[in-house]
Write a structure and sequence with these properties.
The chain is of the alpha+beta class and 194 residues long. The chain has one domain. The chain is built from four helices and eight strands. Strands 1-3-2-7-8 form a five-stranded antiparallel barrel. The radius of gyration is 19 Å and the shape is globular.
Length: 194
């Protein structure tokens, strides 16, 4: 029991020291990592024309379904919270699929929205998914997206999506030790100064 308490005290001291000596961005990055753990919310169609989506994806390995949405989302997504733009165009037939997806404005420096070789893009790229992907295509999603499980339904003017990102949970937990496995803690600072 004493060993457990001693380890917890040591971990707490190291965490506090890391936050004090790493500047203001340390806690901001922990908050951003927490927001990356899941995208979820209600999808609202602001247009008169009805929209449809029924889509499931298992770690971008087995996509199944279809979506074609230009809507709004009330919830959390890609470090946004509240009411924001939501674009989703996907299809999947288990072995193969394709998607263009995003919340809010596109930022090519965000490792969740574009790969390292796509930093100069001005609009959202299209990625291929499915277990055939490693053998037959050259447009895989960014690394953090490989660990997501998308669930989405929309019929007409309202729907729901839920996409847990277990890899980002690991990134969040390791971030307290200053490890950043997805290299997303300071994106946009050096590559795209504003």
């Amino acid at each position: 029991m004493r060993t457990v308490i001693r380890n917890l005290v040591l971990f707490s001291i190291l965490t506090i020291a890391a936050s004090l000596f790493s500047g203001c961005n340390y806690l901001k990055n922990r908050g951003n990592d927490a927001l990356d753990i899941a995208d979820t919310g209600f999808i609202v169609n602001p247009h008169l024309k009805p929209q449809f989506a029924l889509y499931f994806d298992f770690f971008t390995f087995m996509p199944l379904g279809y979506s074609d949405l230009e809507a709004k989302c009330i919830g959390l997504g890609n470090r946004h919270a509240g009411y924001f733009d939501y674009k989703d165009n996907r299809w999947g037939v288990l072995a193969w699929g394709s998607w263009t997806y995003g919340n809010g404005e596109f930022d090519a420096t965000d490792p969740h929205q574009a790969r390292d070789d796509q930093r100069s893009l001005a609009e959202r790229p299209r990625f291929n998914t499915g277990f055939v992907r490693p053998f037959m295509q050259d447009e895989p999603p960014p690394l953090p997206q490989h660990f997501g499980c998308e669930r989405m339904f929309m019929l007409g003017w309202i729907g729901f999506h839920f996409a847990p990102h277990p890899g980002d949970l690991v990134d969040f937990l390791l971030g307290w030790t200053t490890l950043d496995i997805f290299k997303d803690d300071v994106y946009g600072k050096e590559e795209n100064p504003k």
